[in-house]
Every structure is written in C-alpha cells, then in structure tokens.
Amino acid sequence: MELTELKGIGKTTAVKLQEFGLTDVMDLLFHLPLRYEDKTKITAIDKLTGFSYAQVEGEITKSYVTQGRRPILVCEIDDGSQFMQLKFFNFYYSQKIKMKTGVRIRAYGEIKHGMYGMEIIHPEFTLGEEQPALAQSLTPIYPKSEGISQKLLQKAAAQAITLLEQGAFKLDELLPAQWLSAQQMPTLSDALKFVHKPPPDADVMKLLNHTHPAQQRLKIEEILAHFLAMHQARSAIERLNAPLMPINKMQKQQLLSRLPFELTGAQHRVVNEIHHDLARNHPMQRLVQGDVGSGKTVVAALSIQAALVHGKQAVMMAPTEILAEQHLLTLKDYFPEHEVVFLSGKIKGKIRTEVLAKIASSADVIIGTHALFQADVIYRNLALVIIDEQHRFGVHQRLMLKQKGQANDLTPHSLIMTATPIPRTLAQIAYANLDISVIDELPPNRKVINTVLLDNHKMPQLAERIRHACDKGEQAYWVCTLIEESEHLRAKAAQDTFEELKDWFPDLEVGLIHGRLKSDDKQAVMDRFKANEIQLLIATTVIEVGVDVPNASLMVIENAERLGLSQLHQLRGRVGRGNRQSHCVLMYQAPLSENAQVRLTTMRETNDGFKIARQDLKLRGPGEILGTRQKGSMEFRFSNPEQDAVLFKQAKSMAADLLQSNPDVCEKIIQRWQRQAQELAKV
Ligand code: ADP
Ligand code: MG
C-alpha cells in the first residue's frame, strides 16, 4: 500500500520517507520504536523516586528567572503530595509570563534529583485548567532522520496499525502455531500491534530492553529468515558440480618436504578438512580463520597442490599488490616446476595481453588482486579460488570470480582466508553459509610480542628502542596513523615524519612507503626492506595486512589511540614472525578516552587474536564489526547476536525443522525479510 494513501503524507513527505528506507505502509509496520514514553498516567510527585521518565501535573506556586551568567527559568509546582521544580535554560520571556502562579501545568520529562528535591529539565508541558485526555497507550519514539518529525512517524505508524487491525492488508502468519503457543509468543500481527501501541499495563522495562515477547517474536522471525537465506545460498552452490580433486599422501609430501618447517597440528587439521572438501564433486565453501602469523599461506599452498596434481588451475587473490607480490614469491618457491603468473591493475598493455594468454592456456597458478576477475580474464580450467584477507572484498566480487570457472559446468571450489578472527559463535551466524576451519595454534618458538604503551612525549625512550633493535641487525616499522582528509595529505604528513626521523637517525637507513607511491616504487621499497637495506620503515597503514618480513622485530604505532583493535592487532602482527623477541610500542596522545584506554590495555595484555576479537565485539557490537567489513553479509534490524544468543539458537534449530517440513513457508519467510533487508541496505 502506497504511503500517500495515509493522511498527512503528501508526495514530498513520501519521498523523504522513501529516502529514509520506508517505501510503503508495510515498511512502516516494520519500522519499530526505539523506546517509549509513558503518558498514560500522572505520577504523584512524592512517588517519583525510581522513575527515569514520568509525567506530573500540579499547580504553579512560583516562577522566576535566576540571576547569573546564564538566566534560568525556574517553575515550582505543587500537586498536593509534594513540590518540585521545572527548569528551562532556553526560554522566552513570554513563556515566563504564561507560567503564572495558580496556573495548572502538566509536564513530562526525565526525572532528576536536584538541589531542592525532584526536578525536570526542559520538560514537555501543557498549561491550563483543561488538560488533554491521557494517552491510551505508551507513546512510541521511532528512529528518524533529519527532515522527518517524530510526530509524523507516530501518526503514520498509528494509521498503519489501524489498517492492519481493520484487515486492510494481510500479514500471513508463517511460524508454526504450535511453536508460538509453546513459546508463549504472539502472532506476527499481534506482535506488531503490541510494539507500536503497547497498552498502559505493558511491561515497559522489557520493552526498553527489547526482551518483551512481542519483540522476541519479531526477532525470531528475522533471525530465522537469515538462517534460511544462508541455507538457501549454500544449497544453491552445493547443488552445482565441481572438479573432483583428491590428493594422496605422496602428492602432499612433495610440497611438505620442500618446507623449511613442520606443519603445526592445527595446520594439518585444517589442510585435511580442505582436502576432504576437494575430494568431493561439489564446490567447497570454506572459511579459514587464523590469527596473524598462524601460517595461512602454506595452508593455501597445500590446497593449490591438490588442484595442480589434477592439472587444474588455482587462483589466489589478495587485497593489495604488496601482498599479492609476496604470495607470488612464496608460491613460485613452493611450486618451481609450475607456471605461476601474476595479474594486477598495474600490469597493462602488451604484458597484460601476454599474461591473459597464459591464463587462458598454460598457467597453473595465478596470483593477483581484484584485476583477476575483470571480464576479459578467461581461465583454462579454474578449479580453486582462494581469497586472502576476505574482509577487503565485497560479496559480489566473490561471486564474479566464482562464475569464471563455470564454462564446462564445473564450479570452482572456494576458500576464504581471514586474519581477523571473530568469535566462533558470531562466525557461525555471520558465515552460516560456509564451513569454518580455525587455525588455533601458532608455529612453535614464536615469542610473545612484548607490547608497551608510551606517551607521545617520551620520544627519547622510543629513539633508544629503535636504535637498540637496529644495532642488533634487526629492523623496525614506524606506522603513521594520520587522519588527514585525503590520501595526498596523508602521504605528505608521512613524508614530514620521514624527514624528521632521518634527522633523528642520521646513521640509519630510513625508508618511506605510503598509498600515493606508484606500485613499482612501493614494491621497490618493500624489496629493500626485505633485503635489510632499509632499517627503519616509515609507513602509513598500507602495511596493515599480510606483509611478512621476519627480521623486523620492532613495531612503533604513532597515535595508536586512533585505531580500532583489529587494525592494531593486524599491524602488530607484522612483527614477531621470526623466532626473535619482538616489541610493539603503542604511542598515544593523553588524555585517553575510556574506550581508547580499554583498547590499548587489551593490546598490552594479550596477543591472542580471538581474545582481542571478543573484546572488540564488546566495544563495538556485532553490527559495527560485520557491517563495515562485510557489507551485506549480516544486517539485523532487531536482533543482536550477543544479546539474543538464545533466540539465535532456537531459530537455528527451527530453520532445520522448517526446511524439512515446509519448504514453501521457508521461501515466504525469506522473501518477507529479504525485502526488509534490501530496503535497509539502501539507507
Ligand atoms: P598468516 O597466517 O599471517 O598469513 P603466514 O602464512 O604469512 O601467516 O606465515 C607467517 C610466517 O610463519 C611465515 O614466515 C611462514 O613461513 C611461517 N610459518 C608458517 N607455518 C609455520 C610452521 N608450521 N612452523 C614454522 N613457521 C611457519
Ligand atoms: Mg597472510
């Protein structure tokens, strides 16, 4: 039903609402209140203790403006039980004139304990002997955006509910009636009516905490829709055929014997899980989570090996050229008898044509960046797609690459590797469409990185640390966390730091790398750093992911308070990759916000990526963590994987039952909520 069919909504308003993501009357119903105001009753002033918000009504006994730097209008009222003050910091004198002694006033607002008893600052109020009738239900307060008034949303939602009550449109109940009654949950339409128009006796605390059965009813269907959609996506791929690529012990050993180390138990386990998938004729859909430095690259190589023994192609995609080049070197080393080629945005013209020709004919392993899935890249027989550090890639880029292999009706296997671990429970929700492997062990002899916090003023102490590391033949990173508004200014500021540090350390070889350098120049700097020709490398956060220079043992991060936990953890992971004792110095600018303090102490106290991820989740919430990194992979409007863990569990098992018993209903649930999710994604 069109929004313009509602009273008070003309074309212009409808457009504004649409821009806000509310396209029709149904959307209004699913646009739920954030909180409620209780204007259904008047509370006696002597009973106000314990209320955070309340409505009072009494007679004005006195009103005056205080003398001071900032005049305050104070209005004292008495309701027969007690007296209290209403205070206005912003007011008109005309307002004071109306607030005469003896006039009746009704006021609503946040109750505070003032110097002279209870008070409300800036209450909403009405004056006069004839007060309007009390509200019949709690007043919903909706999330809104600029240009849309709360009143407008309230009126529109109220009309939508009335229409629903009158049966003007249908909202099928899709959950099994038995289950609803067993859980004592209302139907969908009753739940919607309740949350938009809670009766005066509703449990307000539960509503405010989002734990009321009516809210739970809405959440469970939302979560159910998520699991069903994930399942649908998964089984759609599962139905496709993929190349069979079993690998035997000897073939595995070929690569293992070339490594300068033994695999860890966790690496072995994950490799086995992957090889098991590759020996099936349906596409692997697996996510490997492993902390920084846990050795994901070699796991990727062993997966590639399976493709190679069957004469098939494998591609590995990295988010940056630096990383891709690093993988190129490593994999060339691991597979000297195979043709390993490289494709990225910087490969152009004749060379690109040559590379494309190789990819279409002879190449076995293809390494690169997102350039790998441009339309004109044709693969000979792509059988395995590996995506490193997947949070840098959009979901749809992944799909495009997947389609590359479908020429002969075979879909490539896909493996996604991420160094930003998220807690297992959250992973199982966010990646319900994937199998998950975890490399939960670091290679032996890794020393725990020693992390210290240092005030920005303590530069001499820091200088000494840098000198100490370099004197031992080790190397250091210096990361500038610049908040300049453009890449150009960031590069310039990094340049300034570089000049300054060259002055500080005239005897050291200092290098500079930032996002504005041409990719060849970037590579040249990284090569020199790798070869230990640069001792101190000044960098912007471009080095965040993946760079592997085991001889680097000191990481300095300037203004570490500006970065989030996972980014700090990634950066710190650039050291501690060899077997020498490494250090990380987090410089900060005092005073620190409470949140920054927690982040920095967490970093000091643990090196464990999973612990850090849990803390990150606490600080930022799941929406923030998944939302920014994996757009579209998980957006819940009502539910929260942390808070609603029980519902998530229930929804998961309900999804399994429903898929068996009622596929038609499953489809309907997905559609109802997918539409909601799509609308939201537009906002
Ligand atoms: P990440 O998981 O961060 O991608 P890498 O694959 O870059 O980690 O590995 C980090 C370093 O550890 C590399 O230098 C790699 O050669 C080394 N490494 C990997 N596995 C092992 C192992 N089992 N024993 C010793 N060193 C290992
Ligand atoms: Mg890596």
From TrEMBL:
Pfam families (UniProt xref): DEAD, Helicase_C, RecG_dom3_C, RecG_wedge
Keyword annotations for this protein? ATP-binding, DNA damage, DNA recombination, DNA repair, DNA-binding, Helicase, Hydrolase, Isomerase, Nucleotide-binding
Say which domain of life the source belongs to.
Bacteria
What's its catalytic activity?
A: ATP + H2O = ADP + phosphate + H(+); Couples ATP hydrolysis with the unwinding of duplex DNA by translocating in the 3'-5' direction
What does the protein in this record do?
Plays a critical role in recombination and DNA repair. Helps process Holliday junction intermediates to mature products by catalyzing branch migration. Has replication fork regression activity, unwinds stalled or blocked replication forks to make a HJ that can be resolved. Has a DNA unwinding activity characteristic of a DNA helicase with 3'-5' polarity.
What is the species of this protein?
Marinicella litoralis
PROSITE patterns in the record, alphabetically? HELICASE_ATP_BIND_1 (PS51192), HELICASE_CTER (PS51194)
**Chain ranges of the Helicase C-terminal domain:** 472-618
Family membership, please give it. Answer: Belongs to the helicase family. RecG subfamily.
Q: What is this protein called?
A: ATP-dependent DNA helicase RecG
| Biological processes, Gene Ontology terms | DNA recombination; DNA repair
InterPro entries membership: ATP-dep_DNA_helicase_RecG (IPR004609), DEAD/DEAH_box_helicase_dom (IPR011545), Helicase_ATP-bd (IPR014001), Helicase_C-like (IPR001650), NA-bd_OB-fold (IPR012340), P-loop_NTPase (IPR027417), RecG/Mfd (IPR047112), RecG_dom3_C (IPR045562)
- EC no. given is 5.6.2.4
Instruction: Name all Helicase ATP-binding domain ranges.
Output: 277-439
